[in-house]
Specification:
Blueprint (H helix, E strand, L loop, with lengths): L1 H15 L16 H27 L1 H4 L5 H27 L1 H20 L5 H32 L4 H51 L7 H59 L6 H37 L8 H16 L14 H20 L6 H4 L24
Length: 410
């Protein structure tokens, strides 16, 4: 019960951030109209706050962005705009797809009812999900907050950097929470698919260990009944995964684009600082990469594990011992196989690309390519004069592509 209570608290965090503007306890018997209305209004308020923050930042443009460098201003602006757009897109999509999100949750409840109809308890699997996801969420959130607050506390020597971290803190947090919100639904689907996989594996064991088991009419009927139910469950889970794709597609696209821009800019800055032998800011710069990389890996790892369970479902289904005299069983297995073929599980980002570890590989390759290009255009400094001259730039971290320097600690 403790892990379930923690999970309920996590849902409230998503609702507080405006990412879940609907009560997941909604049902036909309990419509929760007032709660859903209030949550929808709260998400709209969050969206209005994002617009207000953007307005304040642009009113104080010169105080927030680099005032004396065109390159610095452009890069500061691009990174800030991508963060704000990601925040706004996540809130906007959450508001517009709230019915679809509730539909996904309702389908999961339907799946649990289908399991109960054939005597398969799901309580143990549900509690395991509560424990695993709660631990994942708490560890990641604690790590992220610790890193971000430590960075904020140790960059007081750089006013522009401090302001940039402060104004983008919440928006970056929402972007990463959107990844975890998607991870929650992927893990929920995977926990149900895992039960289907185990049931099919058990059928394989039963039919292969006793070749005469299918001659027992009672045993045959029991296997057929469970296969029919597994087929229904797979179909409902496939529809649920479609709802999840529809609810998170555009916000995930914006979040991944923002992650890509942030990682590219930050890695370029780290190289620039190392190239200048100015190591004072290296710990903060390296630490700032960790929350983004970790959030992406957590999300893609859950998607990969879910797809792995789907692949095993097909494998175990094809290994069920068949009886040439039992036409109905053979037809059922054939129809189930065709269903898996025509209803594949693919977590996509609005159809642009699939979410699995190949996406991470592509991101790393793209970032490396851009780094190589940017490094070619890095201005060179005369090393003979570097000891006697202080090359300064008014463009401060984290966005400039100019040669970065830090004010002396004195």
């Amino acid at each position: 019960m403790e892990s379930q209570t923690i999970f309920q608290g996590i849902l409230h965090i998503f609702q507080f951030l405006g990412l879940c503007p609907v009560s997941l306890e909604t049902s036909k018997d309990n419509p929760k109209k007032i709660a859903n209305t209030l949550l929808g209004v709260w998400s709209i308020v969050n969206f209005a706050l994002v617009l207000a923050l953007t307005t304040v930042v642009f009113i104080n443009y010169d105080s927030v962005f680099s005032p004396d460098s065109d390159v610095g201003q452009f890069n500061d602006l691009v990174k800030f705009v991508t963060v704000i757009l990601t925040h706004g897109t996540a809130l906007g999509e959450a508001i517009l797809t709230r019915a679809t999100l509730l539909s996904a949750w309702t389908r999961l409840t339907t799946v649990d009812n289908l399991f109960h109809q054939i005597g398969i308890p799901v309580t143990q699997h549900r509690m395991k999900f509560f424990r695993d996801f709660s631990a994942k969420f708490l560890i990641y959130t604690t790590l992220t907050l610790t890193i971000e607050l430590t960075i904020l506390a140790t960059i007081h020597f750089d006013a522009n950097w401090t302001r940039n971290v402060a104004i983008t803190f919440i928006s970056l947090l929402v972007s990463r929470m959107r990844h975890l919100h998607l991870t929650m639904f992927v893990d929920l689907i995977r926990s149900r698919l895992h039960i289907v996989r185990k049931e099919l594996k058990q059928m394989v064991v039963i039919t292969k260990n006793n070749h005469f088991v299918l001659k027992d009419e009672l045993a045959t009927k029991r296997i057929e009944t469970r296969l029919v139910q597994m087929k229904k469950i797979y179909s409902v889970l496939w529809e649920c995964h479609g709802d999840v794709n529809s609810s998170f597609g555009w916000s995930e696209l914006a979040a991944l684009m923002q992650n890509f821009i942030q990682l590219t800019c930050d890695l370029y800055w780290i190289y620039s600082v190392l190239n200048r032998n100015e190591l004072r800011s290296i710990p903060q710069l390296v630490a700032s990469l960790i929350p983004t990389f970790t959030a992406i890996i957590i999300m893609l790892h859950s998607c990969e594990k879910c797809l792995n369970d789907v692949r095993h479902i097909g494998f175990w289904l094809h290994n069920i011992e068949k009886d040439i005299h039992n036409i109905s069983m053979d037809t059922l297995i054939e129809n189930f196989s065709l269903q898996i073929l025509h209803e594949p599980f693919l977590f996509t980002v609005s159809g642009f690309f699939n979410m699995d570890f190949r996406l991470l590989k592509s991101m790393v390759a793209a970032i490396t390519t851009y780094m190589v290009i940017f490094i070619q255009f890095m201005p060179k400094v005369d090393e003979s004069n570097s000891a006697n001259e202080t090359i300064t730039t008014t463009t401060q971290y984290p966005f400039t592509l100019a040669i970065p320097t830090r004010p002396s600690s004195s």
